[in-house]
Amino acid sequence: MSKKLFLLPALLVMAAILFTPSCKDDSCDIAQSDFTGQYSVVEDCSSSAPAAYTVTITAGASEFDLKLANVWDSFTNAVDATIDCETITIPRQEPDNDDFFVEGSGTLEKRDNDVIVITISYTVTDETDPANIATDNCTSTVYTKL
Description:
Helices cover about 15% and strands about 45% of the residues. The chain is mostly beta strands and about 150 residues long.
């Protein structure tokens, strides 16, 4: 048997494997409404003092968009975020148009007794002086739904 005849079936089998849809479970039991509400926030950032304050999360323009009010206990305008199941993403943005930027990501967890906790890590950069950009890294900031 020639090598060409053997190669053709092998290529067809490989193509079938590569282009067969996976049987991945795309179910998600977390909705936008799970994220919305008031949260008690506890954080300890790299350049600012430990803080405790309140953040309000509201629905955005689509079922995947959120608005977070009072992020970093400093931003006047809401910070935009997107969700994908339990993951929340804060794309780089300048909410107050004052050269302070924020970006980060986190996850929502439903705990016992219907307690909802979002753990977020984000970075705020002060770019008012481009030659001396200051950074505040807030890792493992905990939002507990009130």
